[in-house]
Structures are given as C-alpha cells and as structure tokens.
Amino acid sequence: LNDMGQDLKSVLVTEEEIKTRLAELAAEIDADYAGRDLLLVGVLKGAVMVMADLARELHHSCEMDWMAVSSYGAGTTSSGVVRILMDLDIDISGRNVLIVEDVIDSGLTLSWLVGNLRSRGPASVEVCAMVRKELALDVELDVRYVGFDLPNEFIVGYGLDYAEKYRNLPFIGTLAPHMYS
Ligand code: PRP
Ligand code: MN
Ligand code: MG
User: Fold this and answer.
1) For the whole model, what pTM was predicted?
2) With 0-12 CB in 10 A as exposed, 13-18 as middle and 19+ as buried, what is 181?
3) Which ligand approaches the C-alpha of residue 103 most closely?
C-alpha cells in the first residue's frame, strides 16, 4: 500500500472505481449541458481531486473557479452557519453553475452554498458530489450527480481529510479507530 496504509481500516472505493464512476458522471454532464455554458465551482480544499479528475473526463468545454468556505464554531458537528474565506473570481449571473464537492456529510455546507450562489442570479445551480453519506439523505438538498452513497463512517482519501491528512490517497478508505479515538 503506502506509508498511510497502517492508519486505515479498509478501502471503500478503489481508484479504478472512482475513475469509472467519474467517466459515467462526466458523460451525463456532457449530455445535460450540451449547447449551454458550464462553470464548475470547486469547494476548497476537499474538492480538489474530484474537480481535477471530473474536468478532465468532460468533453464539454467548461470554466473552473473555486470557493473556500468554513463552518462557524468548533466541534465535530457542522453548525450550518458558513462564512466565505475566499470567494469566486467569476461573476456567475446568467451562468450554469455546477458545484463540485468531495463529500456531503450533514449537507449543511452545500445547502447554504446553493442558496448563496442562487442569490447571485445564475441561470442554474446544480451539485455534483463524489460521496454522499447516509445521514445527508435527511437534508433537503437536491443533488443532481452523486458518485457514491456510502454509510456514515469516518472516511478519508481522494480529497477527504482527517486533521488535514490523507487527502492525497488515490482511493477512499475508512480510518482505523485507533487513529481518532
Ligand atoms: C468538508 C467536506 C465538505 C463539508 C461537508 O469540508 O469537504 O465541504 O465538510 O460537510 P457537511 O455536509 O456536514 O457540511 P471541510 O469543512 O472539512 O473543509 P475541507 O474541504 O478543507 O476539508
Ligand atoms: Mn470541503
Ligand atoms: Mg475537512
């Protein structure tokens, strides 16, 4: 494996499975946005991997921009109050925006972000998330493109971090309990 292997319990989604799924999603996106402009908005930092790989699977010409957001308050659960650490460069009014995320956990970050971007007068706002966790299914959030629906475990890799580590794993895995207990 590699020197992070001993920190992991299991591999949930392999590098090959990610690549295959991204190609399927890209084909859907190509078809859905045919004849329309497309602006991908990646949410730093977790979305870096999926943004880079999804964009390269698309045949459709697209632009890419980035936002960095942060939930207010410490603790393990998201408060739902989000502040913008770095905003978009591009004016999205009249644009077809596709938000690209690594994971939907509580769904609070995305539901806030969708509302924020909708208020800027875009032609459309949709969401593509590599992983949707089980608990997120409760949240009122229309996610157009989902890579994988996964159980509510502590997952890392492919952009997802634990204390900023493991983002560079090319697959998605579960962290061994001894790493966070
Ligand atoms: C993580 C993840 C999503 C968000 C999902 O980002 O990348 O953006 O949390 O959580 P939610 O659905 O409960 O709101 P994080 O704030 O950890 O920043 P990061 O992307 O830099 O890791
Ligand atoms: Mn994130
Ligand atoms: Mg994080």
Assistant:
1) 0.94
2) exposed
3) 1
